[in-house]
Amino acid sequence: MSFSPSTPFTLDDLRRILREAAGADEAVDLDGDILGTEFEALGYESLALLETGGRIEREYGITLDDDTLAEARTPGELVDAVNALLTAAAQAA
Fold first, then answer.
1. C-alpha to C-alpha distances, 72 to 1, 39, 46, 57, nearest whole angstrom
2. Could you give the 3-state DSSP secondary structure of residue 32?
3. Rounded distance, CA 4 to CA 51, Å?
4. What is the pLDDT of residues 41-65, one digit of tens each?
């Protein structure tokens, strides 16, 4: 997939990648309103987020540093961080 400024990284993209990278806890409804829910409460620990970050990097052609992944405590924060990197990459191209 290639990024264009008209197609931002969305929560649905993150849900799909989380499921592919680390599965989903049956007790957690990823399809609900999870933007502000901490990853830990959703059942995703640091190793799962590293795998998720790696998949985002490969799919979208960006680099997520460790600080970005560590500081993004919720899906909403990670979506915002990815979109900021995608926008910066599109502007630099």
1. 23, 9, 11, 15
2. coil
3. 24
4. 999 988 899 999 999 999 999 999 8
